[in-house]
Amino acid sequence: MSKTRVLIVEDEPHIVESLSFILQRADFEVDTALDGTEALRRLSRHIYSVLILDIMLPGISGLDVLRAVRSDRALDRLPVIVLTAKGQAADRSAAEAFGATAFITKPFSNTEIVERVCQLAAGVSK
Amino acid sequence: MRSLAGSKIRALRKNAGLTQGELAQRTGISPSYLNLIEMNKRTVAGALIDRVAAGLGVERSELDDTAERRTIDGLNELLSDPAFSGRPQGPSTDLEFVSRHPEWADLLLRVYRAFIDRNQSVLALADRLNRDPFLGESVHRILTNVTAIRSASEILETDDRLSDAQRSRFLRIVAADSESLSATARALATFFDNPEMRVQSGTAMEQVDALMLDSDNYFGELEQVADDFRKRREFAGAIAGACDAASEEFNAPLDSVESRRFRAIMQMSTPLAQPAVMRLVGTHPALASEEARSYAASALHAYVAAAILMPYEQFLDATERRRYDLDALSRQFAVSYEQASHRLATLRRPGAEGVRFAFMRSDPSGYITKRLPLPALPLPRYSNACPLWAIYAAFQSPGATVRSFGTLPGGDRFLFFARAIEKRPQTVAFPRHLLSIMLVCPAADASRVVYADGLDAQVSVPVGTTCRMCPRHQCGHRQEAPLFL
């Protein structure tokens, strides 16, 4: 049986590296993208169970990626965890409006993020 | 309006060791009348004030209550500040308070101004912290580094199956992000250490206000500089030259010819005026900050330029002949309406005074950008003035003069006249920039002023100073509840 696939979209390589490691340890197959363009390219080619999306990305922003995901019929039900470094109300409400499934504010704990990904991958939204 | 002179007379009499009877005798009035004066229940003016001063052996100016009135205006503004609402006492308390405890009144006012200053500093700092891109970026970097460090540390701490290579790799991540975090922290420390980070005082303009008020908006020394400028041979033709240059200069089409001419004169007169301006700026105790001194220097150089273009005696003579008609004066002296208006408020040379005007300039939002009050007409410093004042109605018909008689709650009557002018012509990229200029004079002087012509002096609009200070409960224009019941 193939592993559940997760896409991490985050421009900070060290965070990507640690996130990938802990999710792989939790038995997920992990893809990564360092910017919005790469993220959209990967989303168009592969099927993911969960998307972890940083909101502050160079070029196409995390919010733009989220909007594109939600306007795509094939992706509109994909669980999306939005990472926000600012933790600010404006970012959060914009992401909420665009259909984010969950929010995790940096700096997060590994346990917190793995648990959330597991829940969403299993189809539990809360 | 009640006078404070009585309290001063009482204090000076006691200092001189005189009884009421003795001073009354020296002054040629009854002791009971002197008692009423000392209780501030009768005004003292004209020849009587000279006799009282002589009886006390002091200068007439020592009985003058202008400074106290200014303190009262300031305290009334404090009373009308919503931050201190709920005080049960009315402004009459201030009159007693100021006359009996002048030092305390002055201290209270200083504390209030310091409070306003700090409030504005806090707001400015908060605004800066919220909007400064460097700070926003720094916070983002800190959170990113901390996230990377936390995540890698947790892996190092909890994962027993790490290979040596993996352990080294995550240790390197911790080290690298720690280093980056340190750099960000150092940059932030430098940022906050920078003197430019200091919030500029919100009171610089107030300090300049204080300089103008203390001098009654008249500077004899600068009038002299202006006269010297006009007489000096090397400046002969400079004024005409500035006029020609201003007319022919097409590079700055956004400024009026009058503004360019004014600026050119100011530039030419600056070297001559600089010593006098620096002396005034350097010695006035109110000018506490560099910013205030800089504003004050600009204002005083502008004063000199105005005095060059509108020489005192010539301008005073013209104002009386033309009955303060600002359009006629603007044409005669080739200055703008605003320049002529402001000059009117400087005609306060002792012994050669014009009609005393209060001057006020506001933008359409109600922000007061220039103010010069009269003793009986305080102009608000921090809040909006009475919406019935002509200065606001003038925005409804820019270019036209709005005028009316107005009566303050205390019964003092004034002639108000205002005009909204275009500060600079509008362009596609720059929306119309209107400022309203208002002059106010006591109704008693209105017959000398052309703007009272045709107005029925018996018809006077009931006005206030600010809503919170105004006891006219039924006023349909009220925006805030009155502070006094």
Walk me through this protein's architecture.
- The complex is a heterodimer of chains A (126) and B (485).
- Chain A is α/β, with parallel strands linked by helices and 126 residues long.
- Chain A has a single domain (5-121), classed as Rossmann fold.
- In chain A, 42% of the residues lie in helices and 19% in strands.
- Chain A contains five helices and five strands; from the N terminus they run βαβαβαβαβα.
- Chain A has helices at 13-25, 36-45, 62-70, 89-97, 110-121; strands spanning 5-9, 29-33, 50-54, 80-84, 102-105.
- Chain A has a five-stranded parallel β-sheet with strand order 2-1-3-4-5, with helices on both faces.
- In chain A, helix 1 (13-25) links the parallel strand 1 and strand 2 (29-33).
- In chain A, helix 2 packs parallel to helix 3 (62-70).
- The mean pLDDT of chain A is 89.
- Chain B is α+β, with helices and mostly antiparallel strands and 485 residues long.
- Chain B has four domains: 1-64, 434 Repressor (Amino-terminal Domain), CATH 1.10.260.40; 132-197; 203-312, no CATH class; 355-485, Beta-Lactamase.
- In chain B, the strands form two sheets. Chain B has a six-stranded mixed β-sheet with strand order 4-3-7-6-5-8. A two-stranded antiparallel sheet of chain B has the order 1-2.
- In chain B, strand 3 and strand 4 form a beta hairpin.
- The longest helix of chain B is centred in the first third of the chain and has 30 residues, at 102-131.
- Classes of the chains: A alpha/beta (126), B alpha+beta (485).
- The interface between A and B is medium-sized, with 19 and 21 residues.
Reported by name, the CATH topology of chain A is Rossmann fold
Proportion of residues in β-strands of chain A: 15-25%
Number of strands of chain B: 8
Tally the structural domains of chain A.
Answer: 1
Largest interface: A-B, 19 and 21 residues
Assign the structural class of chain B, choosing from mainly alpha, mainly beta, alpha/beta, alpha+beta, or little secondary structure.
Answer: alpha+beta
Q: Estimate the mean pLDDT confidence of chain A.
A: 89
**Biggest sheet features of chain B:** 6 strands, mixed
What best-fitting shape of chain A do the alpha-carbon axes yield? Answer: globular
Q: How many alpha or pi helices of chain A?
A: 5
Through-space gap between termini of chain B: 20 Å
Question: Compute the gyration radius of chain B: what is it?
Answer: 30 Å
| Count of distinct structural domains of chain B | 4
Principal-axes geometry of chain B comes out as globular
Between the first and last Cα atoms of chain A, what is the distance in angstroms?
26 Å
Q: What string gives the helices and strands of chain A in order?
A: EHEHEHEHEH
The major beta sheet of chain A can be summarized as: 5 strands, parallel
**Helicity of chain B, as a percent range:** 40-55%
CATH uppermost class of the largest domain in chain B: Alpha Beta
Largest sheet: spatial strand order of chain A:
2-1-3-4-5
Number of strands of chain A: 5
